[in-house]
Request: fold
Amino acid sequence: MAMSFLQYGCSVPLARALRSRTFTTASTTVKKAKVLLGLPEEQLQQLALDFGQKSFRGKQLYHLIYKRKVKDIQEFSQLPLAFRNDLEEAGWRVGRSPIHKAVTAADGTIKLLIKLEDNRLVETVGIPVKDKDGSFRLTACVSSQVGCPLRCSFCATGKGGFSRNLKSHEIVEQVLAIEELFQQRVTNVVFMGMGEPMLNMKEVLEAHRCLNKDILIGQRMITISTVGVPNTIKKLASYKLQSTLAVSLHAPNQNLREKIVPSAKSYPLNAIMKDCRGYFLETKRRVSFEYTLLAGVNDSVEHAIELAELLHEWGRGHHVNLIPYNPIDGSEYKRPSKKYVSAFVSALESRKVTASVRQTRGLDASAACGQLRNEFQKSPLLTESINQESHSEVALAS
Reply:
């Protein structure tokens, strides 16, 4: 995670996290559900044909799911009752989950906890922004995992543990939930919520396709973030998306980065920068770098100078998003003063590195990533068996 209101979500060193995914048993994974949300129009037309309907019924399904955003098959009033019943009897469902909790901040930011089919909770955030020219933007900050298997030292998500990857429709439905609450179209999507998107690339890319082609959000309005997973930046580059890649650095050198981001031991800074240069050459899209400023840790002018030198060494045209730390309970880190933030920005800009400071949003809504979920995960949402599975997953990952 890398927004001022949402800190990156991570949980154990990368190598162990990758191994833990291998040991996840069938009982802890979500079965392949028959979900309509996420299917393109052609597949919905074929589905209608498979049920003995005309292909135009598939077009109607598409309209009901993506335009009218109906949540339940029995509310598909345009379709024959027999077709609706057949779909349900065959195990099909729309794929929308209920909202377990919504918290609204004074600035209009809304954080949601969505209760998934297996009773696990996932966070998503809606951020409304009115620009100076009067235009309105609504950004959905979406999660890609329930929890996160990478333990970034400053992040709340990792403290709640890791449960599983999200399916593509569980990512898409977060955007639809934000639209429903705000009664506005989402204009921007950032994969900066709970989890590491690159550890769930297949489902993230399927969700990206749906958001772009079916929900009609432009690729350039979508940002995929990563703290760095070996080989995945190269793989993502091969798809030549027009979306933004945001890489979370948080430190200008390897030694400091390992202290802040334990997974950095498995993916050295020079290697990740080399892959970022390759990504730019392959896609012609500038990589954005996220940098959470931690008071007294990585926020000095000397750190800024070192960061500028690192970026100039590996390419040109970089942009740095600076995120003053959003405090969380139980963390030893503190938020830097405005004076230190300003000095850091000046040091970068004087060395021809463009930088912006993220506006803090939703501090009064537990909006740092993982905070709201951590408040509720002790509630009796999970069955005894699921609780046991979650504990075994944490044991495997530690």
Observations:
- The first strand starts at residue 2 and ends at 3.
